[in-house]
């Protein structure tokens, strides 16, 4: 006896069969994939558009690279890996920017976005790499969002680069974070948009980002930090000929530096210095205070358009020490063996000198000229608006 199916049950079966048939004709979901590379080279340049790049030490004499392509749209039809061998090897993770300019990268955060173009980095080192790589017209942009969008590809490539000792690696990244840890080689780390972190680098280091913070700890070599917008932390740089730190906007904190020259330049943001030993120290900020503790330098120049200056000099040479601010007070704490000629002036405020053998009259409260000891160094302190306080207690008890 044949039993008839209940009409409701029969309709459900038909609906299920239709759904299965539809699935059968849909394309397979794209699969994430990865690939490894090895280079017997003197230099390696790795270029990636979106993702995280980790730089590590290689166990042998060859560069080793792992590329992991991730995201819902991960597929070899979208990502091309172009590898060039030789002494100056190169690996390009090429995205389909001729068809897609919008991407989803969840690591940014659900409410975060990033947008960049070739022109954003023209003032930085190697500013044309994105334009040359992607064949962009001037001003063409890439938009990256942490939130999924139907018009964007969810696609990125995480890269691990292992660098052999005493070699050179250049990392070029559009959007994402670059980290480098315990590498005994020289590194150029460049990002259009994203943070750069480096720790324990034995070699020259360039950390350059168009927008993002930079944190560097432990470098034995030359150091250059350049960010268009973002805070900077630099600590423990030893025996360098030169250390240069430049940010268009952001706080700068520098400590534990031993270098021939130290230059700090910020368009807007405070500068905090501690435990600095250098022949020449130059600090320039358009707007922001400068605070320096335990400074040992032969020459020093501090210039800020707006902000107070407070500096502790534990040792002074025979050079020039110039402190200028358009608006803000100046406090200089100098060593007990002080020997210098002084010129101090303020447009609005008073001048006080708590220095052995120096007594300022009433008419010297706005402009003062005097000599301490043999006058070996030359000290200029000038503010458009604010008081000037000069003391001679540096090194006895640190302010920090």
Tell me about this structure:
The chain is mainly beta and 400 residues long. It contains 2 helices and 30 strands. It has helices at 7-25, 129-134; strands at residues 33-39, 43-50, 53-57, 63-70, 80-84, 88-94, 102-104, 113-117, 141-145, 153-154, 156-163, 168-175, 178-183, 186-193, 196-201, 205-209, 214-219, 223-227, 232-247, 252-266, 271-285, 290-304, 309-316, 320-325, 330-333, 340-346, 351-354, 367-372, 377-383, 388-391. It has a 26-stranded mixed β-sheet that branches. A 4-stranded mixed β-sheet has the order 8-9-7-10, with no helix packed on it. Strand 5 (80-84) and strand 6 (88-94) form a beta hairpin. The longest helix is centred in the first third of the chain and has 19 residues, at 7-25. Residues 1-8, 16-29 and 120-126 have low confidence and may be disordered.
For this entry, give a set of tags.
26-stranded mixed β-sheet, mainly beta, four-stranded mixed β-sheet, disordered N terminus, 400 residues, 6% helix
What gap, in angstroms, lies between the N and C termini? 96 Å
Q: Percent range for helical residues?
A: under 10%
Radius of gyration in whole Å, from Cα?
29 Å
Taking pLDDT < 50 over at least 5 consecutive residues as the criterion, the unreliable ranges are 1-8, 16-29, 120-126
The major sheet is characterized as: 26 strands, mixed
Backbone shape: elongated
Structural class: mainly beta
Question: Count the strands?
Answer: 30
Tally of DSSP helical segments: 2
Residue fraction in strands: over 45%
Overall mean pLDDT stands at: 88
Brief overview, please?
With 400 residues, the protein is mainly beta.
